[in-house]
Here is the input.
Amino acid sequence: MKLYRWVMLSMAACIAVLAIAAGYTVGVVSQNNVIAQIDVNIGSIETYLEKNHNATQLLTDEFKEDYSAKTRTIAMLLAQDSSFITDDRTLEELRVTVNADMISVADADGNVVASTDPSGAGTSIREEFRSHLEEDVYTDALFLLDSDTPTIVAASSLDGGHGMVQITFSADSVVSLLQDADLANIASSMPLYSSGTTAILEADTMKYISCTDTDLIGQTADFDKSSMKRNKGKFDVKDADGKTNMVHYQSSGDYIIMATVPYAEVYRVRNIVVGWVIGGGIGILAVTCLALRMELLRQDAKNAKK
Here is the structure.
């Protein structure tokens, strides 16, 4: 019986050690695989954000040159014939020609003396342009895209610095091209296992602008921003069901790229392997126990015959 117990305890200890070793090894490999996949997703998104930023900057420069050129052309036409300034019909025709919302003409002090919009007369040009009234040649464009009615306002010096033309354009088409609509879809193409998420957050507001879970887009992240003090790192957070999730993040300009994976998903393979090791070990232990018991009964039977 002592030998019987010793064998059983030794086998149980070996099974326990084997289960712990398998769990640790597979757990480390599983976590590294998850982190590697997260790094791949984050790297892909960061590359996309850089390309998107460069493309947006190029589009902005092109639009700025286009609207500046239109405004400069109108200024040159008005400089050639000053009667155009007082002719409302001509100003309106010029407005339609460049597809603008409003054309205003200001004197050397920046006061509007003529405009295609009656409400514009008697006002002043924008403050950003007033400091350039005395320049002989000046042309610039402002992108005012954050307001409820996004516009582009361009100005150009008139008659050698003796006035200025200010033209207001609608920016609806520009916004549609410059907006980050594609960002809303980029994360959806990078799912992270069965229940993990890849997301892009605005660094300032912590709002989701892209996520594999589209229901989160537009919502504010429900964890503390102080958890993301560094440029790159990880932390744990609990979801609404009380399950612990692993969060990896990386800052990229105005955005934070974040990946969230439940630990149950991270260690799913490990748990399966440990379960099979323990289950198999219990089976082997049971077979060994029965074999030893049969051998003991056989020995007892022999001893009884003697």
